[in-house]
Write a structure and sequence with these properties.
The protein is mainly alpha-helical. It has 12 helices and no strands. It has one domain.
């Protein structure tokens, strides 16, 4: 992996991780276009730099995390279904679902759903005064919907935002709960993936990883700030259109390019 590869992948990761557009799909497309040969380190790099993106959310919402235990209880309730189902389904997902057609199909279907719910989201008022008062059954339901994101290309952010909308949160609350829930979910998923991945870095690879963490942090920070403004002003439909375009591009590149190599 070259320095330019690390820079591009880290920025792509940070920009897409918390948006409902599937960071997995974007990382596969980016690495395929750049034809990165060091596949073993590439996989570890793509997993590891997620920690930089997670740190951006932790710092952006530090005040929220320090306000009391109420939000932690809701996040735990939402996280448990993902943790249980994720552990049970991990091997199956890696063996059977991680392929280009599944990713592309998930991108397109998710895009259609975002477009379909957009009008409802714009007009919907929350039935919950704050996320700290979110009823536990609703938190668990959002966690169950998040499990759909285990299908590559679905988007964890997209799934949890849709789950929040269908649990009577307004667009701002649904988006913020998605961000907050990302912290325990991504720490657990990233940690588990790293445990399953051999780690024996050279000095140069450690430098690449360090750069990737920093760039993922800053690009995620900026993306979250901009995303909240876009959602407040325009809703989610434009992300739906974008997903459909990317999904079609994914299929085109798979059939006429060499994207299949990224799935090793």
């Amino acid at each position: 992996m070259e320095w330019i590869h690390a820079i591009i992948l880290a920025i792509v990761e940070g920009l897409t991780e918390f948006l409902p557009v599937s960071s997995t799909g974007h990382m596969i497309l980016a690495s395929s276009f750049m034809d990165i040969s060091d596949e073993e380190f590439l996989k570890t790099f793509e997993i590891g730099i997620q920690l930089g993106a997670i740190l951006a959310i932790v710092l952006l919402y530090a005040r929220r995390f320090l306000q009391g235990l109420a939000i932690y209880y809701r996040l735990l309730a939402a996280f448990i279904p993902t943790a249980v189902i994720g552990l049970l389904a991990y091997d199956f997902i890696k063996a059977y679902l991680f392929n280009p057609v599944v990713v592309a199909t998930s991108l397109i279907i998710g895009g259609i759903i975002l477009i379909a719910i957009d009008k409802r989201v714009v007009a919907q008022e929350s039935r919950v005064s704050s996320l700290e008062k979110l009823p536990f059954p609703q938190a668990i339901y959002i966690g169950l919907i998040q499990c759909l994101a285990m299908i590559p290309g679905t988007s964890r952010a997209g799934a949890t935002i849709v789950g929040g909308v269908f649990n009577h949160l307004d667009k701002k609350q649904a988006t913020e709960f998605s961000f907050l829930l990302a912290v325990p979910t991504m720490i657990a998923a990233t940690g588990y993936d790293l445990l399953q991945t051999p780690v024996d870095f050279s000095t140069r690879q450690l430098q690449l990883m360090g750069l990737g963490l920093v760039l993922a942090f800053f690009s995620a920070w900026g993306a979250v700030k901009v995303f909240l403004k876009i959602v407040q002003q325009y809703g989610f439909r434009h992300f739906g259109y974008y997903r459909i375009v990317i999904g079609l591009a994914f299929l085109g590149f798979y059939y006429f390019g060499d994207i299949g190599a990224a799935f090793g």
